Amino acid sequence: MTAKNPNADNPYLTESAEIIAKENNAYLLSVPRWGEFSKSMPALAEYGYDFEDISGNQLITATLVQDANKAFKSNYAKQLFSSKLVSDITRKRIAVVTNVQDLKEFLLEMAQQDQTVEHIYDY
Fold it and tell me: Which residues contact 43 (CB under 8 A, 6 or more apart)?
């Protein structure tokens, strides 16, 4: 993944993220796939990383779980579909797509709305 960090003198990394290369405030980062990726990305966004591409992709999909009666609202992502959870019909899973370059803003927006991002698909 490539990203920029305005705090280039003191880059924050999650426990599982690693800097592969750095030039000024631009980074080539390695973050483990699947669960660790979904945990690391909100923390990196909170610290200010601007994501440029993930595995060469410009779009990325994520899911979140919320109250079944609540409408999804975002300035940075488009809802693809939603489905009620079989294990709890009062909740639903929402799949969204966003530009990788908007991922930071999307994650911060969801945190501000008290929405929990369940998974970020890293491919």
Answer: 12, 14
